[in-house]
Amino acid sequence: MRLFLLGVLAASVFLSGCRKEEPPPDAGALRVAITYATFHPGCLTLSVVDREDPSRTDVAQVPVEAGGSSGTELVAILGREGWSRNLTLTASARERSCNGPVVAEQSVEAQVPVEGITETRLALRAEDLDGDGYVSARGERPGSDCDDDDANIHPAATELCDGIDNNCANGEADAPDALTYYADADGDGYAASNAQPRPACVPPSGFVTQLGDCNDADARIHPGQQESVCDGVDEDCDGVPDDDGFAVGTSCTTAQGCAGMRSCQSTSSAACVSQQQPSDWYVDEDGDGRAGAAVGPGCVAPVPGATTERTDCDESTRFASTGARDVCDRLDNDCDGQVDEDDPGCAAVTWRQDTVGVATGNWNAVAPYGQDRGWLAGDAGRVVHVSGTAFDAVTSCAGEWRSAWAASNGRVFLGASTGELATVRPDALASCERVGGPGSAPLNGMVGFEQGTTVRLFAVDSQGRVIRWEYVEGAPTQAAPQLVTQVASNLRAIHGLGPETLLAVGAETVGLTERPVAWRAPASGSTWTKENLGVPTSTGYLRAVRVLTPRLAYVAGDDGLLLERSGTTWTARSGPTPSGSGTPDYRALLAFGRTALYVVTSTSNDLHFFDGTAWNSVIVAAETLNALEGTGPGDVWGAGHDGALVRWRP
User: Fold this and answer.
1) Are the C-beta atoms of 166 and 160 separated by less than 8 Å?
2) Phi, psi values for residue 560, rounded to 5°
3) Residue among 476, 490, 469 at smallest CA distance from 413
4) What residue numbers bound the domain in which 491 lies?
5) Digit-coded pLDDT (tens) for 348-377
């Protein structure tokens, strides 16, 4: 017996795929009617299995007319040689195509007749009620249509964010305009960087759109958070712990100029920490070319000109430094702890005393300028040039002279009780140049500074004026003296290393009491500053001032007042107290360093010297001294009452 699968009322097809050229006219056949209802099969197949030998099987695709949700397809089955007549027939319908799911299927048992035709029916049923070509997903053999009541909803539909699963897959997650959400475990608005995406049109509960949380278990940690605690935790998730206000881990420079990194010092603060070891730095304050004044530790020079090598043991004087030559001047010039040890004859050097001029004349000022030469100025027009043992009077400078200062070329400048200034050269004693000042009060003190052929002279008077006179050597005419400033004080002395370091001293009237006062020149501009001397109850005048460095100065005055300025602070120092005389007034002061101070008092004729440890009398003059000056610690002059002149010059 032979078995054939025939097309619908058409030519027969062997189940094996070969066409029979002349089927026997008396062969029996099965005519199979396959009906389908409420859907349109995308692919219809009929399988035939020999029940007596299930290994004999054949399958054929049955053509289905296009369109329509119901219909019948006819198939003829002929006998086949080697097959039995007892068959199992199975009709299967798939959705959309032969790759789609089986949505309907029925099997029947049939027998091929020896002759004639036997009718067999197979009925397939599935639901595509909305006619969109997709079978309902309900039932025993579901299709892929999740809503068989709406032809716009099926797997091929475009997904929209409209609250409906239009394409029957993933809800609305695959809508083109859906957003991607991520689980936010700690509720801070950010998900972990490795969180799994979840597309959705509506934010799911506990989900956010932003990634980047570096600790999704702590709501205090997330991007955009301010670093509020210095603790090594990256609170803002930017990869750098404790940045923002703490700037931990960034390069920095300490206050001492050392390169470092910022690190936490507490939970609320960070600081620049360096592994570099700062060095001690020194500067030259006394102008001797050697550095010895400490300006603090640092990895770079804290001020211009600073050096890490300390070469000056005494920054209070330009006459002493490490390795300098020791000379006879009462100073430890070479910083070896000894004084004048290299000059065995120094201890035998005595003071020279002279009476210059009339015995009743007083010297108010002395102005040496080197090599045992200098000037004396005093009352009643007395001006004398001193050269060793020669004393030559100037007869052309009538006046009451209160102050004097000599330039290095020997020219002396004089200040009168009437506010007038004058100048004389040692080689022209008969020519006294005189010029009126901006005031008429006594010029009590003066100091000058040389630059080439120009002398800038500064003088102070009893009405608080500070006066400047610029004198150019050899000029056919000279500029008139100018008023620099006027302060509410009676000024008695002025000194400085230059115009920017000037100190003017005297007294101011507070109520009905005279109190000591000092005024500091401005480094720039024109406003002078009154110093805070730290002695608010002291009375009387400051009568002498010495500026040794920009940071070191001494002033002296009435009631035994002796003050030292170190930096910006004034401190009272102990001065000489001659026995049996009570508290003396200090008339004059000369200083060359912290270990070389000279003072004369109102109560004795002694010239007192301070060596850094104690005050001692170095000479008892024949008369009371009024003025002190020197070109250096080895050239000291004193002058005073009744023509007294004392000199110490080894």
Assistant:
1) yes
2) 65, 30
3) 469
4) 435-648
5) 999 999 999 866 789 999 999 998 999 999
